[in-house]
Model the fold of this input.
Amino acid sequence: MDLPPEFLELYARLDRQGPGVPDDVLWATGRLGLAGPLRVCDEGCGTGADCATLAACLPEARIEGVDAMPAFVEAAETRLEAVPNVSVRTGDMGALEGPFDLIWSAGAIYFLGVIEGLRAWREALAPGGAVAFSQGVLPEGEVPQAVRDFWSAEPDITDQDGLLAQVEAAGYAVIDTRWLTATPWAAYYDSLEREIAALRPGASAAMTEVLDGAAREIALWRQAPEQIAYLLVLARPR
Done:
């Protein structure tokens, strides 16, 4: 993926690169009953926020973060250098070598496609292993124009039923789901807004374009914060 250096500079400064809070990780690991000396992969780990939470709630596990962006991995390494049960590396999300008891992926399966990503990860799961991933979804019923505007760059986005059908088509059984609206998004966009403000003074034309794009995204989200959502899905191969 070829992203402008200005984009990477902005997003590498963030605590996380998409919506989410530690409670999402705690819910998933608790719902799956995970404990003990497991092997866990955080796919698309960004700057390592969820790696830190996974390491804290699964202290006997080995957490391995993978991200395609070296700038994010470098930031994650700095952040996690004092956490003994975590390692991070630059790598291809579609080429994992397991076996993993859990593959966690917050908002990153999008880059592979849900069906393609789940099929690629299947062989990297240990027997009984599970995948937990979050993905953008449309609200049920009539979709407000503000929501359509927010997701306009993702023409293939679907609703909950459509997403779960993709999980089934990939050969997985759904264990449980959790809607992520409002608070996980506010946590992300509040931090993004602070970094936009910090980088504005003296920004180059290229950086200003990136900052303006991020600000437009935040403004679109604020038009419908209760209806713009990720769905966190827990699934196992059938």
Q: What stands out?
A: The first strand starts at residue 39 and ends at 43. Strands lie at 39-43, 62-67, 86-90, 100-106, 125-137, 172-180, 229-237.
